[in-house]
Specification:
single chain, 270 residues, alpha/beta, Rossmann fold, 2 domains, six-stranded mixed β-sheet
Length: 270
Amino acid sequence: MNATTPATGLTATAVAPATTVTTTTDSAEIVVDAHDLRKNFGSTEVLKGIDLTVTKGEVVCIIGPSGAGKSTLLRCLNGLETPTSGSIVVNGHDLSDKATNIDKVREQIGMVFQHFNLFPNMSVEENITLAPTMVRKVPKAEAHETALRLLKLVGLEEKIDARPASLSGGQKQRVAIARALAMNPAVMLFDEATSALDPEMVGDVLGVIERLAERGMTMILVTHEMGFAREVASRVIFTDAGVIDEEGTPDEIFGNPQSERLKSFLSKVL
């Protein structure tokens, strides 16, 4: 069975069913629903009861100081870290249910890291088509066409045969975004995707993310780019010391912050 998402216009083989939880709120489809999420590393409590619900098409930017638990939260949502307690439901699949196939759920979650993690011995096209052909058994011809469409989306169609070593940092990150999109995910997670880039390359990557937002892609971004969060986010979440200190629209967070901690943070970064 095939399915097409409006966000990317891609067609991919449907994922085998896992444990499914149907959730709606105000008629909006919930894509990510985390409740009372806690994560300890030894005696250190990094996440302290996070509640997070993200609906289809939302762009949620998570901001906050270093060490606030932002990246750990994303890694829990993607199943790369196992929460100490709490529940996570992604696209209807309960990650805490032992019957859930976590690998199958991960196929529905695109993740873009600070560092690009491209395979250096493969071409750009091979990096993008590897997972669809190996994991989802997408025919090579279809995967090739998908790679072409995605490279056009990120402005790198002329680099399809290039090796990562010949690309700039910004180009590598755009390829990494295309690679994540090739799995036709229900949600994209970005963990400080521009923090390792030279300043002149940041705009190109943010431009790609903004185009995805315009196409309706559901996204959760940990970012230090306050201007981007203010312009593109549906909702901004400020985390501090493992808790959500304040959340709201960009206008509310940046224009009328309520907590003293958020006011202090913004005074240093704006």
